[in-house]
Design brief:
Helix content is 74%, strand content 0%. The protein is mostly helical. The longest helix is centred in the N-terminal third of the chain and has 23 residues.
């Protein structure tokens, strides 16, 4: 094999992504408490020393998982609300929001965080700040801009953002988390979001301005 045809060594960023992927598999299979850096290193096929070059502890590694997963979801809310009229934007946002909530990775991570919240409240705090709180702020910012141009009318945009996300989840999400129903199908998500958007626009559309 010539030098030009030799396989390219992974960059540090690519190696980090591989570690996060393998660690996620271990966390989901074994849970946070049972998972260990030794197991993750063995699954990677390297030494713990190499793993520690990237992450100093299991806590730091799991926090990186939370930041990557939840941060990406919050970023999508900002992208979705970048432009458009309320009904269109809220429909797009709501459907992506429910798809995220019902995804297998999100559900497994949420269950791990709930199980660890008492022992590791810092992980729960990171999850809340980089995920739900940041996403809700992105929606609040959009609602404030829509209100400023007269497309919506509400006294408290932060409260309205919280109300919209609650309308999106409805009772089905809690039933799902309790394993009482299967995840919603795409058609069911579209119907639920259409109803949520309709209720929200009825409440806060410009015709209801005071």
């Amino acid at each position: 094999m010539t030098a030009s045809s030799a396989p390219r060594a992974p960059t540090r960023d690519e190696r980090r992504e591989t570690i996060l992927k393998v660690a996620r598999e271990v966390f989901f299979e074994q849970g946070y408490t049972a998972a260990s850096m030794s197991t993750i290193a063995a699954r990677l096929g390297g030494s713990k020393g190499t793993l520690y070059n990237y992450f100093k502890s299991k806590e730091e590694l799991f926090e990186a998982q939370v930041r990557e997963r939840c941060g990406a979801a919050a970023d999508r809310i900002t992208e979705v609300t970048a432009e458009g009229e309320p009904e269109e934007v809220l429909t797009r946002l709501g459907e992506q929001y429910l798809e995220h909530l019902y995804s297998e990775e999100t559900v497994q991570m949420f269950r791990i965080l709930v199980a660890e919240a008492q022992r590791s409240p810092e992980l729960a705090r990171v999850f809340y700040e980089v995920g739900p709180a940041r996403g809700q702020q992105g929606l609040t910012d959009y609602l404030e801009a829509a209100k400023a141009r007269g497309a919506l009318a509400m006294p408290d945009c932060a409260l309205a953002a919280e109300q919209f996300l609650s309308l999106c989840k409805g009772r089905a999400h809690l039933q799902f988390l309790l394993n009482l129903i299967p995840p919603l199908k795409p058609a069911e998500i579209r119907l639920q979001i259409a109803q949520a958007v309709s209720a929200f626009i009825t409440l806060y559309g410009p015709k209801r301005a005071r």
